[in-house]
Amino acid sequence: MLFNTIEYLLFLPIVVIFYFLLPHKLRWILLLAASYFFYMSWKVEYVFLIAISTLIAYSSGVLMEKYPGKKSKLLLLILNLSANLGILFFFKYFNFAAENINLLFDKLEIGKDIPLMSFLLPVGISFYTFQALSYSIDVYFGKEKAEKHLGYFALYVSFFPQLVAGPIERFSRLTPQLKAKHDFTYDNLANGLRLILYGLFIKMVIADNLAGIVDKIYAAPNNYSSLDILKGVVFYSFQIYSDFYGYSVIAIGSAKIMGVNLMNNFKTPYLAKNIAEFWQRWHISLSTWFRDYLYYPLGGNRVKKSRWALNIMIVFVVSGIWHGANWTFLIWGALYGVLYILEKVLNSALKLEKEHKPYSLGHILLSLKTFALVTLIWVFFRSQSFGEAMNIFTLLFSGSGQITEALIIPGYVWFWLIFFIITDILLYNKRFDSWMANIPLIGRWIIYAIFIFSIIVHAGVENFPFIYFQF
Amino acid sequence: MYKKIAFKVILLFIVLVIINAVYSKWFYEDDIQQHSDIINLVRDIPNDADIIYVGESSNNSFRRDDLDKRYISAFVGDYFPELNTYDITKPAAHAGIYKVLLENIPLENQVKTVIVTLNLRSFNANWIYSDLETPLQKSLVLIKPYPPLFNRFLLSFKAYDIKSESEREEQFKKKWKRDQFNLPFEFPFQNVIEWDYWMANYGIKDSVGNIDYKQTELACHYIKTYGFQLDTTNNPRIKDFNDIIKLAHKRGWNLVFNLLAENTEKAQELIGDELVYMINENAKILENYFQNRGVIVVNNLNVVEDEQFIDQDWTTEHYAEKGRKIVAKNVAEALKTWYKEFYVEVNLGTTYHTNFFNSCDNSCEVWEQMHTITSELAYSGNKSSRTGTGNDFSITWEYPLKVIPDSLKQNIAIELMLNQKSLNHDAKLIIEAHGSSFNFYRVGFDVKDDIKEVNQWVKYSKTFTIPDSIKQADLMKIYIYNPSREKIYVDDFRIVIK
Known about the structure:
Chain A has 471 residues and is mostly helical. Chain A is 70% helix and 0% strand.
């Protein structure tokens, strides 16, 4: 059940109505049932995976408290990590590993092949696995008490607005909100609906219209001119941003109506002045996860410079691989690592780090520089293989000798894209719902009317599922 | 708080009404042409229609050597020259699609009789859950009987049967597995999957006992296509046809279901009695079921012989000329129920013609490239054939010259109306011949040599003396070839063989 379907537009109000009609003590049952139903709408069988992940994390937490000895806790953590990451590995990385091992076998002329598995990747497996893992690690380090209520814990892992593509919430942030009694309030309803409206606009009008154009370019780049390929590459930057940002905003809005505040996953990342800031503004729930559960345990920056650089590289490469089982994701992550280190080193050597006021010329130029770098790196993320990415770069800079197609971009796509960019600039360090709340009624409703019009009349009509669902 | 919410709901309603007005006035028609141009099939039917024939590609498929390449519906029309017979032809369509198209026939249309093709294959799971279904369903959303903005809302939020190819495959395989055979004789297979699996492994043997993989693959395909037993209670197509019956009743239409011919000869040859039994039983069920509901069912199931099926390596209802004419004759016989006084006898046999004319406004016998027909410009009627900008070939006359006695074919007189937008092209009038007794023959005449006028209709004539060497041509073609980006329109194309 995608957020941008009639099914979800019916599902959400039904859940919300029953949520507020039911007595507080029964609400978790409703939300858990709704979340499992939501997940089963993709593939019924995969609900067992999420249930298994939940049970493993839950029981290891309870057992860690029951057997607080250092060794037993460590053993439980290792078992838990092995099981959860094992499931993730099997479904997400097995075929990738097998293909590469088979290639190696071929090179070494070993006459054996590891058979490949044929199954669909369970939607959102990386998200809920990481959410469950963060809880277990927190319990191990004593930052969290183990949750005794299996129902609430299962709900923490599977809460439907953020189940399949985040934001990846921490136990300490989400569970108390799920347990708390929320009354129906006009402000929550209004803010939630505003966010959903804006999220639908970003996903359906921006991302889905750009998706078709980007797909054309990446499907046959040799047929297009350098300028058209450049358009495709830049459009992908906006496609993936609006696709994932749109999802996150709808998720936050859906939860908001029920009084649950999910964390912000994006803060105008393309206005970041450097790569480090970009990662403070892009997919925040994942970058903070890696910071807390990988970067800090590795020593963070309280180590030698060389070790720090290694830590950075490890974090970005793992982050790349988290996104998908392909060398292109690894390269994508590694490039960020290299750029991150380079920027830090250059900034401190050349003393380039200066404060720039928002919207100042310095801010604009640095943002454009960061956007250009990020856009080029996205080419690896979007490409199916290293060769495909290199072909895009070659064509981008040297052109194709056999242009057979002209990229036709409808006027309304340009119009809404520019509209979105302006909106995004205006929203720098602000969130859409609170920004809208400060606009007088008439202005607000004119904006609503524009968004409603664009969503209904100019939404892309092809079916492009949210990109991050595949992770 | 609830007052506040009620106020906002009213505000939202007002906004939606305004947006609906804006959308209907300035955007809806463009959207229809972009996403639901299927509606043009209905819009093209004049209000003076007496009979409408609704079908899929069986109606307009023809074999290259057909002397008369017209549609089944046109052949039906031959039997009732005084009546206006039109067609709605949509490839891969089925009753669910026909239903929506028929609902869109305006009330002003005087049509009295509707003929709908009843395609046995369309009742099978692999057609019901075909991956063609997503684009077909999508094409219907904007023409549903709701306010335009609501239709666009449904399209934007993907409120139609939208599934990936793999999901659809999973659907029909599940159905195949679930549906157990219940036959009045002993049969070793429980369901179509088992039967297909056996055939794929056992195979069809050639004369020396080796597996003939091509024939085996075809046999498996026949099993998967026809190996089912119709369940009239749950089959969604039955429901669609019942809805068509209700609609016809409401609109006062006479209704004929035209059960199409299947290649039972081939089924017998490849598989044997069991499959033919299933095909015949299913046809009987359909015939009885719908006749009991007051519909005239024309049963063509076994009337077309194997040789007349155009696709010999697949299951289709695409018939060559003779096959189409037989089906048309049976339909015409059924139409006598209401139009006996209008009925005229038609000779089913094929004969040669020496005079051909295409005004671009009607279905024509021996012309190809009819997709180049456009309403942008016309010399006569409303349409012409547009070449250039991707359409390299104009409407093309194609005819097996060999069928005309040599004494009657010395010259070909070509005459057409032509409108060129500029002289910046190298368009040619092409005459080409294909045959087994000679090398490929082709001759071209530069259009610009004879016509200098632009932006006006000019008569272009040429007389071509037929060389003896090509008089036995299996196929002769005449057309305007224009690979440039400059548009050239062609209308009233006449070929006379003298």
